[in-house]
C-alpha cells in the first residue's frame, strides 16, 4: 500500500481527474483575484466550476482511500493497530503540508497587521468548521477538515462492526459506507427542517456546504465507487461509457434546471440542503469508470502527472498565500485590463513556483520518509 508517486505506478485517468479539479479551482480563484465584485454570468460560471473542482477532489479522495480500506479488509488487516497505521500513513501525507501552510498564514496575519481570528486554536485540531461556519481565515482549509474526519470515521465504524462480526468482509465496508451516507443525509434533513430560511448575513455555502457534519458523505460516495470498482470490476469496465453518459447527463440536467429556473438556496432550500450536493457527487462518481480505465498518453502523461503531484501544494498555497498577498500590495480593482492580465500571469507563476518548491523540498521528502518506514512498524 505504498504511495503512488511514479509515472509507472499512477493511474493516468485519475491523475487527469485531479489535474482538472485543481485547474478548475485555480480558474475560479483567478476571477476572485481580478473581478471580486463582478456579477457577470461568465465570471459566476467560472467560479461555480471552482466549487465543482472541490467536489471532484472529495469523490476522488473517497475513491482512493476507499480502495485502500478495501485492501485492508481483503488482507485481513483490520485490527486497531493496523487501522492506527492507516491513520499514521494518512497523517504523514496530509498534516505536514497543512500545518506548515497554517503557520505561514498566521505569520502573514502579523506581517499585514490583520485581525487574528477568534478561536484560532481550532485550526490546529481541524475544528474550525466542524459544526458551524468557519472564520474568514485560511478559507481553503474547510475541505481538508472534511477529508480528515471522513478518514477517521470509516475505520472507527469498521472496528465497531468487527465487534459484532468476527471477520470483516466487503459487505461490512458497504454497510459502513451506506451508514455514513444515510446519517449525514438525515442530518441535512434536520438542518433543513430547523432552518427554513437562511438569514441574510449568512450564506448557504458557509453554513452547510463547507461544514464537516453536513458534507462527510461526499467522500463516501467515492467509497461506493471503490466498492464497485474493486468487487465488480468487469461491469465497472464494460459499462464505463454508459455510466459516463448518465453521469454527464445528470450533471447537465441538474444545473440547466438551476440556471434556467434561477433556483437558489434562499427560495429552494430543501433541494439545495438535502439533494443537490449528493446528486453532484453521484454525477461525478459516474464518470470514474472511464477515468479509472484511461490509459496513459505519451505526450500528456508527464505534464498531467506533475500537476497531479503538485495539486495538494497548489490547493494550499494559491489562495491565502499567493492571491491574498497580491491583493495586499496591488489594488487590482483600479488597474487597467492589461495590468490585470499581467497580475493574472503573476498569480499563476507564483502559485506553480511555490507549489513546486513546497512539493520538492518538503512534501515529497516526507512521502519518501513515510514509504521508507519498515512495514513491521505499520502493520
What does this molecule look like?
There is one protein chain. Helices cover 73% and strands 0% of the residues. It has 379 residues and is mostly helical. It has one domain. The longest helix has 36 residues, at 337-372. The chain is globular, with a radius of gyration of 21 Å. Mean pLDDT is 92; it is low at 1-7. This is Acyltransferase. One of its GO terms (molecular function) is acyltransferase activity. InterPro entries: Acyl_transf_3_dom (IPR002656), Acyltransferase_3 (IPR050879).
Distance between the termini: 11 Å
| SSE string | HHHHHHHHHHHHHH
Q: Report helical residue fraction.
A: over 70%
Give the total of beta strands.
0
Estimate what percentage of residues fall within beta strands: under 5%
Number of helices: 14
Protein name: Acyltransferase
Domain Acyltransferase: 13-359
Pfam families: Acyl_transf_3
Organism: Olleya sediminilitoris
Amino acid at each position: 500500500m505504498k504511495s503512488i508517486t511514479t509515472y509507472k505506478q499512477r493511474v493516468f485517468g485519475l491523475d487527469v481527474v485531479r489535474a482538472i479539479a485543481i485547474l478548475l479551482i485555480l480558474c475560479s480563484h483567478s476571477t476572485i483575484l481580478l473581478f471580486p465584485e463582478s456579477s457577470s454570468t461568465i465570471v459566476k460560471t467560472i467560479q461555480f466550476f471552482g466549487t465543482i473542482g472541490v467536489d471532484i477532489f472529495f469523490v476522488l479522495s473517497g475513491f482512493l482511500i476507499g480502495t485502500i480500506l478495501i485492501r485492508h479488509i481483503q488482507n485481513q488487516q483490520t485490527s486497531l493497530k493496523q487501522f492506527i497505521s492507516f491513520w499514521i500513513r494518512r497523517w504523514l501525507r496530509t498534516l505536514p503540508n497543512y500545518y506548515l501552510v497554517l503557520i505561514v498564514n498566521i505569520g502573514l496575519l502579523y506581517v499585514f497587521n490583520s485581525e487574528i481570528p477568534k478561536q484560532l486554536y481550532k485550526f490546529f485540531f481541524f475544528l474550525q468548521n466542524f459544526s458551524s461556519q468557519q472564520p474568514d481565515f485560511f478559507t481553503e482549509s474547510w475541505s481538508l477538515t472534511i477529508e480528515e474526519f471522513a478518514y477517521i470515521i470509516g475505520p472507527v465504524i469498521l472496528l465497531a462492526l468487527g465487534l459484532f462480526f468476527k471477520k470483516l468482509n466487503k459487505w461490512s465496508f458497504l454497510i459502513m459506507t451506506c451508514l455514513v451516507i444515510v446519517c449525514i443525509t438525515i442530518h441535512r434533513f434536520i438542518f433543513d427542517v430547523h432552518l427554513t430560511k437562511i438569514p441574510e448575513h449568512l450564506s448557504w455555502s458557509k453554513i452547510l456546504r463547507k461544514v464537516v457534519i453536513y458534507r462527510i458523505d461526499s467522500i463516501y460516495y467515492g467509497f461506493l465507487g471503490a466498492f464497485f470498482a474493486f468487487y465488480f470490476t468487469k461491469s465497472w469496465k464494460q459499462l464505463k461509457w454508459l455510466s459516463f453518459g448518465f453521469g454527464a447527463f445528470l450533471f447537465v440536467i441538474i444545473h440547466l434546471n438551476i440556471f434556467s429556473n434561477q433556483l437558489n438556496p434562499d427560495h429552494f432550500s430543501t433541494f439545495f440542503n438535502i439533494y443537490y450536493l449528493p446528486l453532484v457527487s453521484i454525477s461525478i462518481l459516474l464518470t470514474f469508470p472511464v477515468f479509472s480505465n484511461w490509459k496513459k498518453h505519451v505526450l500528456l502523461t508527464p505534464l498531467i502527472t506533475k500537476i497531479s503531484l503538485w495539486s495538494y501544494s497548489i490547493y494550499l498555497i494559491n489562495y491565502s498565500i499567493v492571491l491574498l498577498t497580491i491583493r495586499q500590495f496591488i489594488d487590482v480593482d483600479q488597474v487597467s485590463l492589461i495590468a490585470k492580465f499581467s497580475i493574472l500571469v503573476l498569480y499563476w507563476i507564483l502559485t506553480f513556483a511555490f507549489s513546486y518548491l513546497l512539493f520538492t523540498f518538503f512534501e515529497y521528502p516526507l512521502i519518501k520518509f513515510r514509504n521508507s518506514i519498515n512495514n513491521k512498524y505499520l502493520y
